Amino acid sequence: MAEVKSVFREVLPKQGQLSVEDITTMVLCKPKLLPLKSLTLEKLEKMQQAAQDTIRQQEMAEKEQQQITH
Questions:
Q1: Which Pfam family, just one, is annotated for this protein (predicted)?
Q2: Greatest Cα pair distance in the chain
Q3: The model's pTM
Q4: Predicted pLDDT at 7
Q5: pLDDT profile of the chain (70 residues), mean per 10
Q6: What pLDDT does residue 2 have?
Q7: 16 φ/ψ sector (left φ>0, alpha ψ -120 to 50, else beta)
């Protein structure tokens, strides 16, 4: 691509102060809340809880079987 020359040329003052019209201001936005636990960790905890519940149910069933046979 060919370079396009600007119609305006930049002029910097040799004396005095240089002023800029564009004033930057702080922009406020909504805070982004991050989860305390990652989704993967939550899934692992749910899987672990489900496994513990299954083991408890099996143990209860075994106790019931032992009580019936005794």
A1: BBIP10
A2: 106
A3: 0.45
A4: 77
A5: 67 72 79 84 95 95 86
A6: 56
A7: left
Fill in the amino acid letter for 67. Q
HEC string of the chain?
Answer: CCCCCCCCCCCCCCCCCCCCCCCCCCCCCCCCCCCCCCHHHHHHHHHHHHHHHHHHHHHHHHHHHHHHHC
Residues in Cβ contact with 18 at an 8 Å cutoff, skipping those fewer than 6 apart: 12
Cβ 58 vs Cβ 50: under 8 Å: no
CA dihedral 25, 26, 27, 28 (to 10 degrees): -150
State both tokens at 57.
Answer: 């149910």
